[in-house]
Amino acid sequence: MEKKYLSEMALAEEFLKSAKYSLDFSMRTSANRLYFALEKAVVSYVLFKGNEVSKNHQKIWELSSNLLGEEYYSVLRELYDLRMQADYGRISVFLELSLEVLKNKLVKVESLINNIRLRLKDDAPNEKDGKNNKIEGKGRVGSDGK
Amino acid sequence: MMKYQKSMMKIMESLFFSKEEKSIEKIIMETKSGRNSSFSAISWLEENGFVNVKKAGNQRLVSLRIDNYTLQSKYYFDSITFKALDPLIKLIIRVFSISLSKKIKFIVFFGSALKRSNFSDIDILLLGNEITKNDIKALFPVRDRVERLYGVILNIHKAEVNINNLFKGIVVYQQSYISFINDIEKQYIEYMEWCYEYIKNPGESIAFENSILNLAYCYNYLNNVFPETKLGVLEYFNKKFKVKNLDELKKAGIEIGEKIFK
After folding, report:
1. How many Cβ atoms sit within 10 Å of the Cβ of residue B182?
2. Structure pTM?
3. C-beta separation of B162 from A67 below 8 A
4. For B44-62, b where at least 16 C-beta lie within 10 A, e where not — what string?
């Protein structure tokens, strides 16, 4: 399990680098890599917390909201829109794919991934002690309606 | 006319399905209609302007003659296909279509979810010649509610109204549709609002309680039960559903929604 979440984080970092590198010559590639950079980082944290990872993107966004906070859901959703425009043409144009938008999102994603990296570091001792292994999120109040 | 009705329907359905020109032999094979009744039906359809028939060597090729009257037949087949879809897809499309801009003339449902029962996203094509980016952006709230409540991604595409686009999938909404929103559906929309509020603000326990109450009213009305008090409404609901958290609320919301919008 440990190796798996670390390898997902390594992929996230690699994708983030690709997104930065490709920004100057291919917005499409950059948008695609940027989405997967954040998704991989989220997947890394989901695995770290001992949860199963769904193949369904929306389920991953929902888990990101539960574990890391609502901001992760909304950024992933926006990045998915950009990715869909990049990969399949003009679709779900809620946020226009442009250089300016991508640059802003790059800064945002970098900060969100850094935050996950810090959480992985901070939570690691507890994980080894066998504590904090529950599915419960850290980014939001429990969802039991009470 | 009535004599060839069954063959006619099969032939029209076959032609609408692929929209390609087909030989009479191929149509007979695909529709498994009787030879004589197929020839008679095609003859009637040609005579009355539904199809074109042309000779190509020994074969006779049949194609659709597209006009608004033949399109009515497509809408008919589309409505049957729609009604036979997965209940969750019907729920999502119905909820999505409740309050649309008048610039959206048609919604065409297409993509893998049309053919597969196992789907994680839905593709819908909005047709209209004057749909702007702002009209699409105005759909953000309903899209977000659908995605958060039902866990299905909505891919929204837009295009102009033309024959090719109408044939990209099944037409599931037309601007001329009459609104049939009733009390149960109103309660369900309120449930969606409160549930969404709770998803966005999990500390708001009042949103959780209100969404259960709205859903309970839906369940009571669906079963023709009309208690006089809220307590009675909740009691009847609690006999069937034990909703203690968001996941259970969403699950109950889907089960009840599928029955309301079936």
Report:
1. 11
2. 0.86
3. no
4. bbeeeebbebeeeeeebbb
Q: Which residues of B touch A93 (CB under 8 A)?
A: 133, 136-137, 158
Q: Shortest Cα distance from B89 to chain A (angstroms)?
A: 16
| A70, closest residue in chain B (CA to CA) | B200
- Kindly provide the residue ranges of all beta strands, DSSP E only, lying in B111-185, ordered along the sequence: 121-127, 153-159, 170-174
Query: Concatenated DSSP letters for B189-220?
Result: HHHHHHHHHHHH-TT-HHHHHHHHHHHHHHHH
DSSP letter at B178?
Answer: P
Q: Work out the pLDDT band at B3, boundaries 50, 70, 90.
A: low
By Cβ distance, the residue of A62, A80, A141 closest to B202 is A141
Residue of B147, B158, B202 with shortest CB distance to A58:
B147
Residues making up chain B, counted from first to last? 262
Question: Does A84 touch chain B if contact means CB atoms closer than 8 Å?
Answer: yes
Q: Chain B contact for A91, CB < 8 A?
A: yes
> Which structural domains are found in chain B, ordered by start?
2-64 (1.10.10.10), 68-174 (3.30.70), 183-260 (no CATH)
State what percent of residues in chain B have pLDDT above 90: 77
> Where exactly are the structural domains of chain A?
2-128
Cα A103 to Cα A90: distance, rounded to the nearest angstrom: 20
Cα B45 from chain centre: 28
Nearest-Cα distance to chain B for A18, in Å, is: 26
If pLDDT is split at 50, 70 and 90, which confidence band does B60 have?
very high
Q: Which CATH class is domain A2-128?
A: mainly alpha
A139 at interface of B, judged by CB pairs closer than 8 A? no
pLDDT, one tens digit per residue, over B211-237 is 999 999 999 999 999 999 999 999 999
Neighboring chain A residues of B202 at a CB cutoff of 8 Å:
140-143
